[in-house]
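lol forgot to send this yesterday, sorry. struct tokens for the thing we talked abt
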């Protein structure tokens, strides 16, 4: 029997605008059902990660400028109501951004806040730099575990021997469900906790499938 004390914590850093992080986050919710692990959510920022890059397409640069808006709101919500709101608010934002294809604007953010049971006035943070230092600090906490040459999500969990294991990804579509999700978790921990292991990769041949 699994008790609360025997369950591990998986720290998960996300940027809500990233469709691939969204896929991975929904996988983590599946993993929680079948493995003794609970997800603890943290904000990271693709805008921060890429702010000094000059080789990005213009459209992507525009998306990154707008990427500040939801992460600011997430940090503001967590400061006002506790970190426990990050998971539910991420779910509401991600569902609208990715599954419903709604724009990253105030109306969408307010709808997500309301659905998460939070004051819609928190959307004011989207266009303020008052929370940028906290966004950067949360981002730095996650990215420092894996290095600057990756993206979102970053996951950190205690490995089989109790050591901290952190990795980027996994990048997967569609979201694995049921025992397939659990097997991917087991395999990811196996390779990520192997000393000296760094990378498995292949070219992406499909777009995120929001099933």
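and heres what i got for the seq, position by position
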């Amino acid at each position: 029997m699994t008790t609360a004390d025997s369950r591990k914590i998986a720290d998960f850093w996300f940027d809500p605008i990233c469709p691939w992080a969204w896929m991975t986050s929904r996988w983590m919710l599946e993993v929680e059902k079948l493995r003794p692990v609970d997800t603890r959510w943290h904000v990271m920022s693709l805008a921060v990660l890429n702010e000094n890059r000059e080789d990005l397409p213009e459209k992507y640069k525009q998306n990154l400028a707008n990427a500040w808006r939801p992460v600011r709101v997430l940090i503001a919500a967590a400061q006002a109501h506790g970190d426990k709101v990050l998971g539910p608010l991420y779910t509401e934002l991600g569902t609208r951004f990715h599954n419903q294809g709604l724009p990253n604007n105030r109306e969408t953010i307010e709808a997500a806040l309301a659905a998460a049971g939070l004051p819609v006035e928190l959307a004011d943070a989207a266009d303020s730099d008052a929370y940028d230092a906290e966004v950067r600090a949360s981002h730095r906490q996650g990215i420092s575990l894996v290095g600057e040459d990756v993206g979102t999500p970053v996951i950190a969990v205690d490995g089989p021997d109790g050591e901290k294991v952190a990795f980027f990804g996994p990048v997967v579509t569609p979201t694995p469900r049921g025992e397939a999700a659990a097997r991917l978790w087991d395999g990811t921990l196996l390779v990520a906790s192997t000393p000296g292991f760094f990378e498995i990769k292949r070219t992406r041949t499909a777009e995120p499938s929001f099933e």
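Helices lie at 19-34, 46-49, 58-81, 86-99, 106-115, 132-143, 179-192. anyway ping me if u want another try
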